[in-house]
Write a structure and sequence with these properties.
The structure is a homodimer. The first copy, chain A, has helices at about 15-30, 35-40, 45-50, 55-80, 85-100, 100-110, 120-135, 135-155, 165-175. Chain A is mostly helical. The longest helix of chain A has 26 residues, at about 55-80. At the A-B interface, helix 7, helix 8 and helix 9 of A face helix 7, helix 8 and helix 9 of B. Chain A binds a DNA duplex (18 and 18 nucleotides) through helix 3.
Chain lengths: ~180, ~180
Amino acid sequence: MTDIPIELPARSSRQAEILAAARRRVEAEGWEALSMRALAADLGIRAPSLYKHLPNKDAVRTQLLIDAFVQMGQACWQVIEAEASVPALLRAYRATAAESPELYRLATSGPLDRAALPDGLEEWSGQPFFTVVGNPVIAQALWAAAHGLTILELDGRLPPGSDVEAAWGELAEAFD
Amino acid sequence: MTDIPIELPARSSRQAEILAAARRRVEAEGWEALSMRALAADLGIRAPSLYKHLPNKDAVRTQLLIDAFVQMGQACWQVIEAEASVPALLRAYRATAAESPELYRLATSGPLDRAALPDGLEEWSGQPFFTVVGNPVIAQALWAAAHGLTILELDGRLPPGSDVEAAWGELAEAFD
DNA sequence: GTCTATACAAAGATAGAC
DNA sequence: GTCTATCTTTGTATAGAC
């Protein structure tokens, strides 16, 4: 099972609706495209109404960030519980990021306010890398490498004509 | 020698002054803090005057991006010409990024308009990774891994208490 | 829970005088 | 080459009515 052993903050149903809309918008157009006005418009209401449900825009970001950690963590946990290997984990990591690239970007770029994250979430989401290599330092190096290739791929930073598939293969091999 | 075999676009002296100020500001406060008004203020002039020297803000970004590619490339080339080893290259890469973290972030994050880059610059700046491992696919994987660890470190994304030094060591070892 | 109206701030960019 | 004045857009957020 991939139940999350983390206490996530409760959300009212309206909050959940708002965050779902925010997530749709971010995934479709990126965080930059998320303004309180636009978000409200997506919901058929006006921007000021949002402030009855969420204190400010930063709260939206934090909640989406939590969702992203949960999603990445779940996907990776699920895979390694079936097959605890470096290649399988990397495939899962890459695929999940590719499913929600903008959310992934949001979750992994820029400063992170750890105080706003539920206790243990960050550690839990990184655990699969440790499980797979059995060493915290190597786990960190592997995660960093996976992130690097992921974000460069998402940002279109690998030169045109690159054999990205093969690069992922080399990464798996280097850490096997 | 580490002369650049790339034709860089010429800059007027005033353009150079403006870009130097832009670079100082970006390095001190990040790209987000660079507005045309603020940039002008740093130079003791008003924002509209900038448009006599540069077409728009995006041109500033492009030029800083070129500078960053040149700087990273030069540092890496210089090191591998002295010692063409994975650990040496990684040390140089990490150190140069740490020297100008905001410029590094600007150069490696977000979309890249390759048409705006001087011909060959991108390839030239990545060449040291190829030189060191002798295979384009492995070079790409190594570069991606280095970038991942670099950007996570710069963004403070490695959990507090991490042994970053050791993670760099593992990365070098994995690709040795 | 939603609205209108509004305050407030900052940004990129242009026109035209000097 | 620089200025002032201005346009235009966009954003976060609050007050108070309904």
